[in-house]
Amino acid sequence: MSSTPRAFQNATVGAAVAALTGKGSRRFLVADEVGLGKTTVAREVVRQLSRGGRKKFTVYYVTSNARVSDQNAARLVDFLEDKRARLRALSKVDRLSMIPLDQRPNDKEPPSPLRLYSLSPQTSFPPEGTRPTPGAAVERAF
């Protein structure tokens, strides 16, 4: 389950929420050393802005690589009340071009108000000079 944020993390959460909900640029960057809890800060910001997962809210979580993205995505929604709610909040889409196709037609439950897309540059922005990958069949059809 989720860890309790420390005082310095709560201070960052408060500053981020104020910046993202106030007037002005509505931008905030958390850049810190490894291991100081950037994911914990991000989770708390998502929790507050989505009102605990009850308000319609979309998160685009972009990390340096797919491994970090996959590892941390579940931690960003672990404040949700149960496992089913957490699973419904996480999208399986891993590239920008697939977001319009992110549907759950076989799901009997209503969609989660909180939706988290976990992306990495390798899948959405291939490096210049590399051979493009063909992508998934559904992506090519789209």
Please sum up the structure shown:
The chain is mainly alpha-helical and 142 residues long. It is built from 6 helices and 2 strands, in the order H-H-E-H-H-E-H-H. The relative contact order is 0.15.
Layout of helices and strands, plus pairs?
Blueprint (H helix, E strand, L loop, with lengths): L6 H15 L16 H12 L7 E6 L3 H11 L6 H7 L24 E6 L1 H4 L12 H5 L1
Parallel strand pairs: 1-2
Helix pairs in contact: 1-2
Describe this entry's structure for a reader.
The protein is built from 6 helices and 2 strands. It is mainly alpha-helical. The longest helix has 15 residues. The N and C termini lie far apart (38 Å). The relative contact order is 0.15.
Percent of residues in beta strands?
5-15%
| Helix content range | 25-40%
Average residue-wise pLDDT: 85
By secondary-structure content and strand pairing, the structural class works out as: mainly alpha
Helical run tally: 6
Shape, per Cα inertia axes: globular
Distance between the termini: 38 Å
- H/E series: HHEHHEHH
Unreliable residue runs: none
The main pleated sheet reads as: 2 strands, parallel
Spatial arrangement of strands, main beta sheet: 1-2
Please give a handful of descriptors for the protein shown.
38% helix, 6 helices, mainly alpha, two-stranded parallel sheet, single chain
